[in-house]
Write a structure and sequence with these properties.
3 helices, five-stranded antiparallel beta sheet, two-stranded antiparallel ribbon, single chain, about 30% strand, about 25% helix, alpha+beta
Length: about 90
């Protein structure tokens, strides 16, 4: 099972529209399992690690589930977990 990265980010409520998610990806800065990604159609699977800039920090998320729809915030939050920073 997999889902397009832009669709998954939309389900996770990173942007208000799927097109907005695609533009974020194409602007650069996203990494999927440490590999740079600039295509919205990149495949996301549970267990993948997504790294991306958000506001003034770098976010690292582990994909926990794919989701079937863009639901409310608590449902979206269940799609990923924040990966804590490693040892300094």
């Amino acid at each position: 099972d997999w889902l397009r990265l832009d669709v998954w980010l939309w389900h996770a409520r990173l942007a208000k529209t799927r097109g907005g998610c695609a533009r974020l990806i194409e602007a650069g800065g996203f990494r999927l399992n440490r590999q740079p990604v600039t295509k919205a159609h990149a495949r996301v699977r549970p267990g993948d690690v997504l790294t991306f800039p958000w506001q003034d920090e770098v976010r690292v998320w582990r994909v926990m589930a794919l989701g079937k729809r863009r639901g409310p915030a608590p449902e979206a939050r269940a799609l990923y977990e924040d990966v804590p920073d490693g040892p300094a």
